C-alpha cells in the first residue's frame, strides 16, 4: 500500500500503543478530582481551573503549586505528591509513544520465523524546544511492560479517587 504506516505491519504493537494512549487519557481525567480532594475546591471549579491549562505537564505543576500551602502530612497531600511523581512518569512514557515516529525490524535486522519483532521509536524529532530527540528500541514485551505500568497508575488513581485507597509508596 503506498500510504503504509509502520504499525500496520505489526498490529500487536499497534494494539498495545492504542491501549497505552487510551489509559493515559483516563489518567488525565483524574486531575480535577485530585485538585478538588487536595484543596477542598468544588469539583466543577477544579475542572474549570485545571482545564484552563493546555498541557498536562502544566496541570501537574498546578497541583504541585497548590500543595505548597498545605500541611505536608495531610493524607490528601501525601497522596497528591505520590501522584505527581507517577503522573510525570506516565506522561514521559506516553509522550514517547504519542510523539514518535515508528520503524519496524526484526532482531538482528533480518526476518526469520523465529526472529523477535523490534519497534524503533524516534520521538520529538520535530520539536524545536528539544535538543535531543528520544530514540528507543522496543520489543513487544517491553511495550507491554510500559502498558502495564500505565494501567497500574490508572488503577491506583481510580482506587484513590473512588474508593479512598491510599497509594503504595
Flag low-confidence runs.
none
Query: Mean pLDDT, as a whole number?
Result: 91
Tell me the strand percentage band.
Answer: 5-15%
The secondary-structure class comes to mainly alpha
C-alpha-based Rg, rounded: 19 Å
Shape: elongated
- The end-to-end span amounts to 49 Å
Largest sheet properties: 3 strands, antiparallel
User: What is the topology, as strand order, of the major beta sheet?
Assistant: 1-2-3
Can you write the helix and strand succession as a string? HHHHHHEEEH
The count of DSSP E runs of length 2 or more, i.e. the number of strands, is 3
Number of helices: 7
Helix content percent band: 55-70%
Overview of the structural elements:
It is built from seven helices and three strands. By secondary structure, the protein is mainly alpha-helical. It has a three-stranded antiparallel β-sheet. α2 runs parallel beside α7 (140-163), α3 crosses α4 and α3 (31-39) packs parallel to α5 (56-67). The longest helix is centred in the middle third of the chain and has 24 residues, at 75-98. The N and C termini lie far apart (49 Å).
